[in-house]
C-alpha cells in the first residue's frame, strides 16, 4: 500500500509539472521556474529506489551473512558454483565440505551461496508436484 501512496504522490508531482508547462505554452510566455517541484520529484525518486531496491537487498545480505556465520557440522550447503555437499569441518574462514562419499573439498565461507533449510539440512524446501523428489540423492551424501 505504501508503494501506491508514494507512487500517487510521485504522479501528482509530475502532473503539476506538466500542467505548468501546458499553461506556459498556451499563454505564449515562458513558465516561471519552480525548483521546489523538481527537488520534490528527485527526493521522491531517490526514496522509491531506496525502499524498493536498496533496503531489501541490504536485509538479504545481512541474513545471508548470519546463515554463513552460523554454519555447523552436518549442514547441507550449495556453493556458488552449484556444488551440493555436507559440511564436515568448520574453521574460521574455511569449510570442509563432503560432496560425495570420501570426497571432501575445502571452501572459503563466502563461496557458500545457500544453506538448505531444516535441522542439519534434512528439511525440504517447497516443491511443486511436477518436480521429482531428490531425497534418494540426499541420502547418498549422508552415508
Features:
single chain; alpha+beta; 5-stranded antiparallel sheet; 3 helices; rod-shaped
Describe the overall structure:
There is one protein chain. With 143 residues, this protein is of the alpha+beta class. It folds into two domains: 2-69; 76-125 and 133-142. It has helices at 2-27, 35-69, 135-142; strands spanning 76-79, 84-90, 94-100, 103-108, 112-115. It is rod-shaped and about 85 Å long. 8% of the residues are buried. Residues 120-143 have low confidence and may be disordered.
What's the mean pLDDT score?
75
Strand order of the largest sheet: 4-3-2-1-5
Q: Helix-strand pattern, N to C?
A: HHEEEEEH
Our Rg estimate from Cα atoms comes to 26 Å
Shape: rod-shaped
N-end to C-end Cα span: 50 Å
What can be said about the biggest beta sheet? 5 strands, antiparallel
Estimate percent helicity. 40-55%
Runs in which pLDDT lies below 50 for 5 or more consecutive residues are 120-143
Number of domains: 2
Judged by helices, strands and strand pairing, the structural class is alpha+beta
Amino acid at each position: 500500500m505504501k508503494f501506491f501512496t508514494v507512487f500517487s504522490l510521485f504522479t501528482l508531482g509530475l502532473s503539476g509539472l506538466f500542467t505548468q508547462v501546458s499553461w506556459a505554452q498556451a499563454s505564449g510566455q515562458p513558465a516561471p521556474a519552480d525548483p521546489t517541484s523538481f527537488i520534490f520529484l528527485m527526493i521522491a525518486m531517490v526514496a522509491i529506489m531506496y525502499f524498493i531496491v536498496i533496503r531489501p537487498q541490504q536485509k538479504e545480505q545481512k541474513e545471508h551473512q548470519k546463515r554463513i556465520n552460523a554454519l555447523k557440522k552436518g549442514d547441507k550447503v550449495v556453493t556458488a558454483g552449484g556444488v551440493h555437499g555436507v559440511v564436515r569441518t568448520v574453521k574460521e574462514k574455511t569449510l570442509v565440505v563432503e560432496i560425495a562419499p570420501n570426497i571432501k573439498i575445502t571452501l572459503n565461507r563466502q563461496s557458500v551461496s545457500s544453506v538448505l533449510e531444516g535441522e542439519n539440512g534434512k528439511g525440504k524446501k517447497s516443491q511443486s508436484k511436477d518436480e521429482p523428489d531428490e531425497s534418494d540423492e540426499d541420502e547418498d551424501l549422508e552415508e
